[in-house]
Design brief:
With 74 residues, the chain is α+β, with helices and mostly antiparallel strands. It is built from 2 helices and 4 strands; from the N terminus they run βββαβα.
Length: 74
C-alpha cells in the first residue's frame, strides 16, 4: 500500500493506493491493510506539503502502525 498526500486549498488530502488502484482515504481500509500486510511501501508528498506537515503525518502513521502491531492485551 502507498499513500499520496496533497493539499487542496488549505486542506491536506490523503488517498490510498492499493494493488495499483488509487482510492479515497478510508481509515478503516488503512488499518485493515496495515493489520493484514504490516507495511506502507511509500508515502508520496506533493510539493505543497511542508517539512513540519510531513513529520506530523509520518508520526501519526507510525503511532497507528505501532498500535496495530501490539498484541491484544485483554
Amino acid at each position: 500500500m502507498k499513500i499520496n498526500v496533497k493539499k487542496e486549498k488549505e486542506d491536506i488530502v490523503l488517498s490510498l493506493i492499493i494493488n495499483g488502484a488509487e482510492e479515497p482515504f478510508d481509515y478503516v481500509r488503512l488499518v485493515n491493510e496495515l493489520y493484514n500486510k504490516n507495511e506502507i511501501e511509500e508515502i508520496n508528498y506533493s510539493n505543497e506539503i511542508n517539512d513540519w506537515e510531513k513529520e506530523e503525518i509520518e508520526e501519526l502513521i507510525k503511532q497507528i502502525n505501532n498500535v496495530i502491531k501490539q498484541p491484544n492485551e485483554e
